[in-house]
Design brief:
Layout (H helix, E strand, L loop, with lengths): L5 H19 L4 E8 L2 E2 L3 E5 L4 E7 L5 E5 L4 E5 L4 E6 L5 E7 L10 E7 L1
Parallel strand pairs: 1-4, 3-9
Antiparallel strand pairs: 1-2, 4-7, 5-6, 5-8, 8-9
Bound molecules: copper (II) ion (CU).
The site of copper (II) ion has 6 residues, from loops.
């Protein structure tokens, strides 16, 4: 008779473990950054260190734009209408500059910063 109760109990423990694991996995910090001709819609993005950042990049302009972070060797070409998703994690508090990598666009004001706090 005793064995009849083992399986439901095991399933309950497994379910509890799955719930605990889900709670421990850091959820990505999600942002959408949109390129216009000639600016990014978010001049500053505030994130926490050691938690993944999921950045959705959109181009609502009529020109090509390039999301570029020199410090992290990230370059994403965005043609008009494009949507790209990138993820990254920063392991310390810092300020990271991003620009548009198309010649002349940084100078025209396509710049911004990711403020990373502990
Ligand atoms: Cu641009």
């Amino acid at each position: 008779m005793r064995t009849m109760f083992k399986l439901p109990r095991l399933l309950f423990v497994a379910g509890l473990l799955a719930a605990l694991l889900a709670a421990c996995v850091p959820q990505p910090q999600r942002f959408t950054l949109t390129a216009h001709d000639m600016h990014w819609d978010l001049p500053e993005i505030h994130v926490r260190a050691n938690q993944p950042v999921e950045l959705t990049l959109r181009n609502h302009g009529a020109l090509d734009h390039v999301f570029q972070i020199d410090a992290m060797d990230i370059q994403v070409l965005l043609s008009p209408g494009d949507v790209e998703i990138i993820t990254f994690t920063v392991d310390h508090a810092t300020v990271i500059d991003f620009i548009c990598g198309i010649p002349g666009h940084e100078e025209a004001g396509m710049v911004g910063q990711i403020m990373v706090s502990d």
